[in-house]
Design brief:
Elements lengths: L2 H18 L19 H12 L10 H16 L5 E10 L5 E14 L6 E7 L13 H14 L8 E6 L2 H4 L1 H7 L7 E9 L7 E5 L4 H10 L7 H9 L5 H5 L5 E7 L18 H18 L10 E6 L3 E6 H22 L2 H29 L9 H20 L8 H20 L11 H12 L6 H27 L9 H14 L1 H4 L4 H21 L9 E10 L4 E8 L15 E4 L6 E6 L10 E10 L2 E9 L5 E6 L4 E7 L2 E4 L9 E6 L7 E7 L4 E9 L6 H6 L4 E2 L6 E9 L1
Parallel strand pairs: 2-19, 3-4, 3-5, 5-7, 10-22, 10-23
Antiparallel strand pairs: 1-2, 2-4, 6-7, 8-9, 10-11, 11-13, 12-13, 14-15, 15-20, 16-19, 16-21, 17-18, 17-20, 21-23
Helix pairs in contact: 1-13, 1-19, 2-3, 2-4, 2-10, 4-10, 7-10, 11-14, 12-13, 12-14, 12-17, 13-17, 13-19, 14-17, 15-16, 16-17
């Protein structure tokens, strides 16, 4: 093989090695034991006591009572006089046709002076029914307790409230109940702490709008920043919610932070104390203490909206959004002028766009084809292998374009046109997510500076191009690492556009090495690297003890027919061979769920009864009706009433918390849920517009009947329930 070809392959391998090492851009601190500072070991010890035997403790359950008692006891031992607010409440959602109801008991501790606007620190102490919640949101509970133990011994200039709410997992019910609490009327600042995993650095992913004051506080207080205005825009656009969704209506200064590493343990039995990384707890605690110390002196007076991001958790860069937009436009016009002046504009633009499109399509198509070949989340045990293989495939697609239609275009022309296209993409993104502008400023600014200096020093442009790529890799590499964490459950193609943008300038700058290399050898060798990666990704074990398969078993009985079925809710992979004795199995959906499942006939459960509804009153006005009814749970711990799509629900809830529903805000079926012991005998209200409609009623109780023993034995050793527990369901219907 020619020396030029070897140098070209060395450049390709260097790019892939850098992409493999990008996770080193993110990290967590060592646990500290310094006086007056956050101590993660001490915080985790408190959490260990509070969680006790680590049973799941959803709101309004016996296990929840035990956790709350230990939480209150801990606060009392720390010198607080905790308040417990007991309320049956309901919450609605702007992004979904859903009202969630439950009896919640918020635990509140107050410190500092009795007058002045208060700072609220909030975390929820309830868990999902399927896991102990050591991270979600035990990490928030531990953080508040340790921060509270430090702040209570300091002179505070205003009140600081620690809120341990519950019912977050049921639908943010505790947060809604707190807004009815008199203490909520005197708050102007909020720090909320959450988790969507069990490890990794703490990302501040959501603020209030406008965010000027919140970002001023964050920039001043946090020494290891990990935040971007793009993530705050994404949080606004996606359907996911935290307690901040409820709190936002008060307009408080808000900073919402969470960990997101190893989602496979999230909302599962794996969310235990062994899985919670002490470094992540230290990171959250350091940030919480720094922000609380800063904001306990008062909220900043800054105004307006800021765009921001961190560079390798070391430098925090922020600016007004209008300044960022102005810089983007200046750089865009600058590179447009340079690109046009240098000639070959059409071919250079076609090459650059085709590189991004070709690499993107290659990466996306490979993911789709592998998904057809191997079902389930086949990458779950080692997602890094699959992500790196996707990047190798993108590189192959981009290199093929560069060495064909772009082979005759000079590097300096391609460099200018690439940054022009890059800036155009930034402008397009700004239309839907203005916070993303910040990612499109620094690298092209360095490249533009190199172009200007090259008038006096010719090598400056190449140096500027290389430095621009390095800066792009550091900033976008961190973004890519964050996306890998967030989308490790899938869809994997989410990383493809970002990776295509990062890889393209590296290939353009390396074009001088490719010029003397054999095009055939380059493409065949790059294809071999990608193929080898897919062979490894396609044959490696899909699951491990730390990264287990999602696998929930359900027993379903439909009434009045009494027909019973087994349901397995997994990631779409084939069922274990042992399950064939129960079958035949087929794929399908429940009437009230969009998730596909495996179904097989099941024996009936003796004596099981569906949820009953007793109508107490119906008040009509034309075709509109207000129906008040009482629930009879008959053993169900979670009850859902689902109205078919097209039925107009004006409001729903319980007395004192009847929530209005905006039918124009979202489409789909309407659901009202009630969770916990107190739902048995609870009285609910629904205001219905139009004709009478048939509601589906689902009742769920944790655990399975004895007839499930064979399924439980046959479940793979590296599989566990996630999001939904093993449960027994009943389904019936009622006309309201």
């Amino acid at each position: 093989m020619r020396r030029d070809t070897l140098w070209a392959f060395a450049a390709i391998l260097l790019v892939l090695a850098a992409l493999a090492a990008k996770s080193t851009l993110l990290g967590v601190p060592q646990v500290q034991h310094a006086p007056g500072q956050f101590d993660a070991d001490r915080a985790k010890a408190r959490l260990t006591f509070i969680l006790g035997d680590q049973r799941p403790h959803p709101a309004d359950s016996d296990a929840d009572d035990a956790v709350r008692a230990r939480l209150v006891s801990t606060l009392q031992q720390m010198g607080f006089k905790p308040l417990v607010r007991d309320q049956f409440a309901c919450n609605d959602f702007a992004k979904a046709r859903l009202v969630a109801c439950a009896r919640v008991r918020n635990v509140i501790a107050v410190m500092g002076p009795t007058t002045g606007k208060a700072l609220l620190l909030s975390a929820h102490y309830d868990s999902v029914p399927v896991g102990p919640g050591a991270s979600d949101d035990g990490i928030g509970v531990a953080t508040l307790l340790e921060v509270g133990s430090i702040l209570k011994d300091r002179p505070l200039r205003r009140p600081v409230i620690l809120l341990f709410n519950e019912g977050e997992e049921l639908g943010l019910v505790g947060a809604r109940a707190f807004l009815a609490d008199p203490l909520s009327r005197n708050i102007d600042s909020l720090l909320n702490f959450e988790a969507r995993g069990v490890n990794g650095p703490v990302t501040m992913f959501e603020t209030n709008d406008p965010n000027g004051a919140a970002i001023a506080a964050y920039a001043r207080a946090v020494s290891r920043p990990y935040a971007s205005s793009l993530s705050t825009d994404v949080a606004r656009l996606i359907p996911n919610d935290t307690d901040v969704t409820v709190y936002k209506e008060r307009g408080w200064l808000t900073l919402n932070s969470a960990i997101v590493g190893n989602e496979t343990r999230y909302h599962s039995p794996g969310d235990d104390l062994a899985g919670l990384d002490p470094g992540s707890l230290q990171d959250m605690g350091d940030e919480a203490l720094a922000l609380a110390s800063d904001l306990s002196s008062g909220a900043p007076q800054a105004s307006g909206n800021r765009i921001f991001f961190d560079v390798a958790q070391q430098v925090f860069i922020q600016m007004p959004v209008v300044v960022g937009a102005a810089i983007l436009l200046l750089l865009l016009f600058g590179f447009a002028a340079v690109s046009w002046k240098r000639g070959s504009f059409a071919r250079g633009a076609a090459t650059t766009i085709a590189m991004l499109a070709g690499g993107g399509v290659a990466g996306w198509l490979a993911v789709v084809l592998m998904g057809l070949v191997r079902g389930g989340t086949y990458w779950r045990a080692d997602p890094e292998i699959t992500f790196l293989t996707i990047y190798a495939t993108i590189l192959l697609g981009e290199l093929a374009v560069l060495r064909t239609i772009g082979a005759e275009v000079e590097t300096r022309k391609l460099r200018a046109i690439y940054w022009l296209v890059f800036l155009l993409l930034g402008g397009a993104l700004a239309l839907v997510a203005p916070g993303g502008i910040i990612y499109f400023l620094l690298p092209p600014a360095v490249a533009q500076l190199g172009v200007l200096i090259s008038r006096w020093y010719a090598p400056a442009e190449r140096i500027g191009g290389l430095l621009a790529f390095l800066l792009l890799f550091v900033t976008w590499g961190e973004l890519l690492a964050a996306l890998e964490q967030l989308f490790s459950p899938g869809p994997l193609w989410t990383v493809v556009p970002i990776a295509a943008i990062v890889i393209a300038p590296a290939l353009i700058e390396a074009q001088v090495l490719f010029a003397g290399a054999s095009r055939r050898d380059l493409l065949v060798g790059s294809a071999a690297i990608a193929l080898l990666g897919w062979i490894v990704a396609g044959t490696a074990p899909a699951y491990s003890q730390d990264h287990q398969q999602r696998f929930t078993i359900e027993h379903l009985t439909e009434f009045p027919s009494g027909k019973s079925s087994w349901s397995v809710l997994n990631d779409g992979a084939a069922l274990p061979a042992a399950y064939s004795a129960v079958g035949p199995w087929h794929r399908g959906k429940l009437d009230f769920s969009a998730r596909e499942r495996w179904f097989a006939p099941a024996p009936a459960v003796p004596g099981i009864r569906p949820v009953d509804i007793q109508t107490l009153s119906t008040i009509g006005k034309g075709d509109d009706r207000t129906v008040r009814f009482r629930l009879k749970a008959n053993g169900a711990e979670r009850i859902s009433l689902i109205a078919p799509e097209g039925v107009h629900i004006r409001a729903a809830g319980v007395s004192g918390f009847v929530r209005a529903i905006d039918d124009q805000a979202s489409s789909g079926k309407f659901t009202i849920t009630c969770t916990g012991r107190s739902c048995d005998g609870a009285e609910l209200v629904i205001e219905i517009a139009g004709k009478r409609a048939s509601f589906t009623i689902s009742g769920a109780r944790n655990g399975l009947p004895p007839s499930a023993r064979a399924l439980l034995r046959g479940r793979p050793g590296s599989a566990r329930p996630q999001y939904v527990p093993d449960e027994t369901l009943t389904v019936t219907h009622v006309t309201l």
